[in-house]
Design a protein that fits this description.
homotetramer, 335 residues, seven-stranded mixed beta sheet, Dihydrodipicolinate Reductase, domain 2, Rossmann fold, globular, six-stranded parallel beta sheet, alpha/beta
Chain lengths: 335, 335, 335, 335
């Protein structure tokens, strides 16, 4: 049984608070958010206490672990403060938008890396995890090509886009982690960005992109992103090897199919959005974190994994802007 | 917020106890089972108290509602005792194996029918419920043919079969309720039973069956049952009308598909068994019960629905044994 | 190389003429039809000669085989005349609407049965044939349940219905043959007919039906028919056994799937109608006929198979009208 | 009715000869091949004459059109000779492996471009053509992303690889044409080649590749290739736009699905290989050619389309070898 604090009472903080509250081995103790009454409402809903003073979380003697759901610019500070206070940390992605600050964070927590986990929740999605396990068991032979299609239902507002770090650090970062999860070290990144929506272009970002990653193994991953998708949250993946392919199809809320004058076999739209699509992944992520912290083993994905995904995002950003692939000048630490 | 007692700490009692414990508007107060230490273990797991004396449940002032998961022969006694004690009741199917006892039960609780619900959980499965709603909205026009395929993964032991009341009362009863849910009153029943497994035949039962139901509306439902299915728990349904068809496909645990030397597009086995397949249905059933009891409206399916499903099961049993269709000599009360 | 005459220049005659013309081992010599100029047009299209005098076909020295596509009441006369003239015969289903006349036909051609084949083309559909072969190889174990869903896109005109012999002899007859193809001898038939369309009821027929067939083996087949289907020609089949199930899904003209605001994975309508759905079956049927006649082996399905399907149609008609299952009073000759 | 000569009696020559022979508006007159007795056998099979002297084809007064199926290095010579002799030409892809020779060909036939068609048969595949038509009708809005997955069942022998011009000119060339068919002019090409099979690497080629094409419209196409695929000939395509996506799924020989202990919904392997997968495409291609030549309109894809696909293949080859994307220095002529 681990006692949790959640920092940040926004959308993703609410997900984690609810996941903790429902978990048999977790207890929600406190929710902290300096702004508005979000922390209060969230804490009340789950029988926890609230505070507007984040420092109270680190000082609290009844808190074992902290889930960092604050805005990205605060992530590093909250990680470091929590680790120094002897708390385990589960931090939302991305660690930060600056590699320098991530490196400073790594230095600050040196020796305590095994108490920090980064929230790349998709590794814990049962569908993706099943493919990962079957690939690991050799079912398709050595992985040769990985295709990830990842499209959000709708673009966020331009105001969000502006401070997001750009599509590669904000959205593709999940897919970069997925690619590393399947392929290990990446040695080259080539990205094409698309300007389809003038509002997003005006905010300085691409709204769609295709990224090609070459792994040290010789395998190649392709990531296809879009900020919009009419059918919902499009989350597919295909692992291909010499003995076969394993494909993750989209999820729908039921298995109903319609046949009529307009055609046949029509399913509903894709589960929309990440809260619905990745409900089980958040639960699995929390279980893994609790298990690792409780047994003193290193949780995964680690802060290093968070750093490597950001390295890929930076490389993709540069590649898309310059029209030149980026070769990564050092071999990344394997996941 | 409703306070619950669960009577019966077996497999299905455990499902209901866990569903109650996890429900935001429900509280598990007591688990009662006269045999062994099942009640104790189940109560402990969910922070409730336990008892071997079922009478305590009816006497308890902190119990609003009782979920009856005792063996079938006790259902009626427990319903009546609970209702007399002013408790609401959610009773597992079937109400009883004897129409006479069901009728006695109805008489005993006369005037309080709206406090009793029968656990035909499939009505609350999101896939079936979506089809029901879309049929209700006229998407396929008037329902003409309903096809239900319902196969268990494996036959229960012959010892269970012996006391089960036979396949129609034990297994098909769910499908009879589903047929009534979609088609309303049934006027004729024709059943063919199959003897494929000598052990089940020796226990006096069929192990597979096909039943045809004619509705008052002129629609026809076909139910195809088997006690075994190699691919798991086979739970399909198709509603067909002049403007189209709505089909419920089987559920699998992930959306992974494999393609290789052996073929393509291969999904995993069907969710196996009812606890996995109908997890959400149990939750939805409980929500409906709480909502109905809290607002003083009649929950559905009612005890009358439980009776009507048994009437169909009896008619099917007779038809399969005699080789003659049964006409129902009175128009059943509509669901 | 076999030389063919086609008798009857209607829709089905045109199919057979084109199939013969395109077949590498067949040659179309003459098309005969006493009415209108259909024979002339069809013959011209395929470089054959035409006649309004059907007797010429039997007299022609350059005709090896006759495909009988005349109206059903003429089938028996044309079979007998062709056989007496030493021609092989491929006759469209049904042989006749009267068992007495079929028996008279059998008597008339006694000793020459192996030169006559009945056009139950679905046996030669690659999808159904693959399932039949895999069942035969034991992939699912002994066949226990066979489910056939067979729905036409639209009802024929009432004028056609009137002389059709009724849904069981006209439409279900294909499914009866399919059931026998998979299950062998049938010992009991139970049918429910539906009156959904008043025009068809006025013409004295059902427009939908569910039939249950019990095989001597203990297996049960269920046939679900409708005269209309909004999504096209609905032709499905599922063979179920202890080790698995083999399902024939509907065919569409392409593999295109649409995902958008209305849902996902939407395919086109079903191939519509039998000419499209069973193109390959007609070709395979002809190849089998040519192979059998050329090598002096018995083609299958035989005239006996044609008779047995009619016996089942008669039994179903009686069952649907009386509400009582029909037991077949003799064990049918196995297919 | 057009009279055809086929030059080249190899595998693809046989396909075209058979397609011509079976086409109602085409007549196969002569098959020419200087080597062995292939021409003789092929001609005999279809009732045509044969020759080892290709020049006879151009001289023949009864030949309207020539299908060029000779080895690639002869394509240009055969096109030019045929056009000069006043014959229409359908030439297999690629036109040549050298842009200079293609340009010389264009110059040599100047003024007669509308009598030459290049055999990018996939444009005539009913599945791809349906998607193209629906995109053209605006069903998904402006095309934003096109994903093509194209994998051969097995790599050809190294001896073939050596003279093939490399994967991009030999295999991807089809996908380049498909990308242009959907997206029009391409302005940038980025390719990653993979060395997975040492034998193919030794032959100087990649055996898998991922190519990203940016269109003048801003749309991006991704092509994923492999020389092997355990499940058969993997030919998929997805067109994505703001209002939806249209996906071409793989084709299988039947619609049979298996469910059993190993899982559910398992289809057969993909149609294997191009003769099976694209049978209808060859037929449609021929019909289009006949229609265009007969009516004096320009057939499509044209020789210019053949040139543009080669430009993309060259650009991809350079990109994959240098690790740098290629910008196309001129706007290509639209298809």
């Amino acid at each position: 049984m681990l006692s949790f604090a959640v920092i940040g009472a926004g959308r993703i903080g609410a997900v984690h608070a609810a996941t903790v509250a429902a978990h048999p081995d977790a207890r929600l103790v406190v929710v902290a958010d300096p702004y508005g009454d979000g922390a209060d409402r969230l804490a009340t809903a789950h029988g926890a206490r609230s505070t507007k003073n984040v420092a109270e979380v680190f000082a609290a003697s009844d808190v074992d672990a902290v889930i960092v759901c604050s805005p990205t610019p605060h992530h590093v500070d909250h990680i470091v403060a929590a680790v120094r206070a002897g708390k385990a940390v589960l931090c939302e992605k991305p660690v930060d938008l600056s590699i320098e600050r991530v490196d400073a964070c790594l230095e600050a927590i040196a020796g305590k890396e095994d108490t920090v986990m980064i929230g790349f929740n998709r590794r814990f999605d049962p569908t993706f995890a099943e493919i990962h396990a079957r690939v690991g068991q050799g079912e398709i032979g050595p992985l040769e090509q990985l295709t990830i299609i990842s499209r959000d239902p709708e673009a966020p507002p331009a105001s969000y886009i502006k401070d997001s770090g750009g599509i590669f650090r904000d959205m593709t970062i999940h897919d970069f982690d997925t690619a590393r999860y399947f392929l290990g070290d990446i040695v080259a990144v080539s990205a094409v960005g698309q300007h389809l929506d003038p509002a997003i272009e005006a905010a300085g970002d691409f709204d769609a992109a295709v990224v090609t990653l070459t792994a040290a193994s010789g395998a190649v991953a392709t990531i296809i992103n879009s900020r919009h998708c009419a059918a919902g949250y499009d989350q597919r993946l295909e692992a291909f090897g010499p003995r076969g392919a394993l494909e993750a199809k989209n999820h729908t809320s039921t298995t109903v199919r319609f046949a009529g004058g307009s055609g046949s076999d029509a399913a509903g739209p894709y589960l929309d959005f990440f809260l619905e699509r990745y409900t089980e992944a958040y639960r699995g992520e929390l279980s893994h974190f609790i298990e690792a912290i409780s047994t003193g083993t290193a949780p995964s994905p680690s802060l290093i994994d968070g750093r490597e995904a950001l390295v890929l995002a930076d490389a993709a950003t540069t590649s898309a802007r310059t029209g030149t692939p980026s070769r990564l000048d050092r071999v990344a630490t394997t996941a």
